[in-house]
Design brief:
Length: 96
């Protein structure tokens, strides 16, 4: 099981494609920084390859004014939730 951290906006289509090819059945994706824009209802199609195993960092949503526009299939977690994800996944990889 791997935790994938993604900070790229959904405009970085090559990064999302590479990530979807590396994403395993027990993996989880955490959207941080500009990747929060992918969690919006209008952009969430880019997250379909990840099968609902996607969360977004609440602090980054709030700082970008996106908290009210998130697709309901994307989980919202705070820093404690981020820590819990790192504890439950064997490895972590950052996509920057």
């Amino acid at each position: 099981m791997m935790l994938h951290l993604l900070n790229r906006s959904p405009r970085s289509t090559a990064t999302y494609q590479d990530l979807s090819e590396a994403f395993g059945s027990g993996d989880h994706l955490l959207l941080i920084e500009d990747a929060c824009y992918a969690a919006q209802v209008s952009a969430s199609a880019v997250l379909e390859p990840f099968g609902g195993r996607v969360s977004v960092l609440q602090e980054d949503l709030v700082s970008r004014g996106l908290a009210a526009r998130i697709d309901p299939s994307v989980g919202v977690i705070d820093m404690n939730g981020f820590l819990a994800l790192t504890e439950t996944h064997e490895r972590c990889v950052s996509w920057f």
